[in-house]
Amino acid sequence: MQNNQIEQIVRRVLEDLTTANGANTANRGGGALPKTARVAMLTGLERFEIKEYPIPPIGDEDILVRVEGCGVCGTDAHEFKSDPFGLIPLVLGHEGSGEIVAMGKNVRADCAGKPLAIGDKVVTSMTLADDPDITMYDLNRQNLGAASVYGLLADDDIHFNGWFADYILIRGGSAVFNVSDLGLKERLLVEPAAVLIHAVERAKTTGILRFNSRVAVQGCGPIGLLCIAVLRTMGVQNIVAIDGENMRLDFAKKMGASATVNFKDFANTAALADGLKSALGGHLADFAFQCTGAPAAHANIYQFIRRGGGLCELGFFVDGGNASINPHFDICQKEITIVGSWVYTLRDYATTFDFLKSAKQLGLPLETLITHTYPLDKIDQALRDNLAMKGIKLAIINEG
Questions:
Q1: What is the pTM (predicted TM-score) of this model?
Q2: Which CATH architecture group holds 194-340?
Q3: What is the pLDDT of residue 25?
């Protein structure tokens, strides 16, 4: 077959896949897209309803994605339990990934300039691609700000606004990345891992966190465990994990912690500090990461840090209440350097892809952090199990 014949065949196939509005609508099997699909709509406190809606029209800048799965985040649990953002009704889920099945005629590449095509696997970011203050390649470190977020959008006439669904419509101007070289469970960890990439980058600005630093990570939920993995991938060797559940501490060792401390084994904070000091070879921590979101944990972490040490506080994505500290003894006298961290930038998001690959090369079993999976129609149970702190990372996985 001659090259011109091949080109004619390819051209005819592409023309067949193009609709009147210019959107490429080939699905993974080569047939037509379904006319309707399901979403898990949060319609009230602790109540999801599986609803079915027509697939919306695909604009010239839009991407339609068949959802393969989505991680359950603490933010989802907060919204499920108390609606702190006042968004109900809505489709939750912002840690998702799936396969492009249709896209507008103007879609060419993702935020990093990587080409996009039908069949590619993608993730979205909480940041917006068209915000001039948030770019991939400048030195600006601006994070989320007031950007709209898939999975935290109030319901509208599109409906497919979150990853807890069969499909999601990614609209023009959104931050989207081609991650076809990652497995599904790795893709579901991209968003939470980006939070830790940003936190560690914030910690590095203090000049205290180094390869040979003695580091304490307080809280071994998904965020704390990913924090340990990021630090280990960076080359930090001496990491002590603090938590009250032995199962989570066991995971901390798998993620690269050199030692663990169960705070339930100690009568008070002073004794716990001594236990941590012993685990760090007779020293307090050079740097600490507070990952729990519990005010009491923030109040006592200062006692685990040496004079002149550093602290990154990243546990409070939402208002978790006040913490009582003694500014003189906890901060001033010890000259502690503190940074806060919240979400990430687009640059951090892209760096996360390299982190996931490096962690795999080191043999860190990140995929094992996803301990429980559920079909979409069991989402109520997934959120209740998340609130009950069952397992480590929970995820909705769609069939097919």
A1: 0.88
A2: 3-Layer(aba) Sandwich (3.40)
A3: 47
